[in-house]
Design a protein that fits this description.
Bound molecules: zinc ion
Order of helices and strands: HEEEHH
Number of domains: 1
Structural class: alpha+beta
């Protein structure tokens, strides 16, 4: 059950490990990347710097098929190549994380209803 999400979470970790803390310029490590929540088709992760302890923010990451239409059909088993593809796609970006952080900061406990529908596409 956790295999599907676990694979994507690992991809997210690998994605952020290619990024660098904007405060201390050290790369993020897997210890600084925490899985906050799993929703169908969405992972919510909190990213922080394990070196200087400063938080980067919260990222909402679409993981593929979910209830409703999905634009892209991501394979459930993320391979190394998929991870690289994942990193090159605008699924999540540094700016998105910062935006998500701002987004989250103004939400209450019922934030999940405000989750952006990552699978949204114009041509249902
Ligand atoms: Zn840092």
């Amino acid at each position: 059950m956790g295999k599907f999400y676990g694979g994507n979470f690992q991809a997210i970790q690998e994605y952020f490990q290619q990024k660098f803390c904007r405060f201390c310029s050290n790369p993020f490590t897997s210890e600084g990347i925490e899985l906050l929540r799993e929703e169908p088709g969405i992972l919510v992760v909190r990213v922080g710097c394990s070196v200087c302890g400063r938080p980067l923010g919260v990222a909402i990451v679409g993981t593929g098929p979910k209830t409703g239409q999905t634009k892209q059909k991501s394979p459930f088993d993320w391979s190394k190549r998929d991870n690289e593809k994942f990193a090159n796609q605008p699924a999540i970006t540094y700016d998105d994380v910062l935006a998500a952080h701002e987004f989250f900061s103004g939400l209450g406990p019922d934030w999940s209803k405000h989750l952006p529908r990552t699978g949204r596409s114009t041509g249902s």
